Amino acid sequence: MAIGSSAMALINPYRADLIAQVGESTATPYFIYRLRDAMLADPTGRRILRLRPRITSKTLSMSYLRSLPENTVGRTYVGWLDREGVSPDTRSETRYIDDEECAYVMQRYRECHDFYHSITGLPIVREGEVALKAFEWANTLLPMPGLSMFAAATMKPQERQRFWDIYLPWALRNGSRSKEVINVFWEEQLERDVEELRGELGIEQPPDLRAIRKAAREEKKRMKEIKAKGI
């Protein structure tokens, strides 16, 4: 299952069900226990494991988050959801991890994924997803995010170059040095200043990928126009 789902997910990295299968089948027997132990070693992580909160549109009020000031974690999160056109209700249920507590750890990791996106600002385009997976791998040591980096081979040359030059170094540096993000009780951080939380976690934002992609498209268009006029 791990090999088959990994191969198919490499071809289509937007298949959330395949990503989920890869994550669960490669996390056992060691890696998910290591992440569970990291939560048990942290006071907030232990509380999360005890309370087992879920992140969905039912547990979080989207209208309330939109009413928060611009600089807050909650407004940053819902703003990212709105901009990318995604919902917190799309995360698959854990199916292939037998240990109940470890199954919840995997579920929590999945449901927090969009918070990682929002706090870093990375969009859900292929470049952004692979960059965030690299960050998650360095931070959690789960195999699946590491395997996801092979998707860089399917990028366009310019995208792949940006990944190697900018986003992979950022991901490995920040993921390895920051606090373990699995231990963030995001539901209790919604009204905090997002820059303050980034500083506390030790996460610096990468260069704005959407702005870089837009500038690259505009430059390509400009060069085509110049070439056409020259002809």
UniProtKB/TrEMBL annotation:
Q: Which GO terms describe its cellular component?
A: extrinsic component of mitochondrial inner membrane
Recorded family membership:
Belongs to the COQ4 family.
Q: Which GO terms describe its molecular function?
A: 4-hydroxy-3-methoxy-5-polyprenylbenzoate decarboxylase activity; zinc ion binding
Entry membrane topology: Peripheral membrane protein
Q: Catalysed reaction(s)?
A: a 4-hydroxy-3-methoxy-5-(all-trans-polyprenyl)benzoate + H(+) = a 2-methoxy-6-(all-trans-polyprenyl)phenol + CO2
- Which controlled-vocabulary keywords does the entry list? Lyase, Membrane, Metal-binding, Mitochondrion, Mitochondrion inner membrane, Ubiquinone, Ubiquinone biosynthesis, Zinc
Instruction: Indicate yes or no for the key word Iron.
Output: no
* Cofactor(s) in the UniProt record: Zn(2+)
Q: Species name for this entry?
A: Metarhizium guizhouense (strain ARSEF 977)
UniProt function note = Lyase that catalyzes the C1-decarboxylation of 4-hydroxy-3-methoxy-5-(all-trans-polyprenyl)benzoic acid into 2-methoxy-6-(all-trans-polyprenyl)phenol during ubiquinone biosynthesis.
| Name of the protein this chain belongs to | 4-hydroxy-3-methoxy-5-polyprenylbenzoate decarboxylase
Main localization of the protein described in the UniProt heading: mitochondrion
Q: Which InterPro entries match?
A: Coq4 (IPR007715), Coq4_euk (IPR027540)
List localization entries: Mitochondrion inner membrane
Q: Which gene encodes it?
A: COQ4
Pathway this chain belongs to: Cofactor biosynthesis; ubiquinone biosynthesis
Which positions bind Zn(2+)?
A: 113-114, 117, 129
Q: Which domain of life is it from?
A: Eukaryota
What is its quaternary makeup?
A: Component of a multi-subunit COQ enzyme complex, composed of at least COQ3, COQ4, COQ5, COQ6, COQ7 and COQ9.
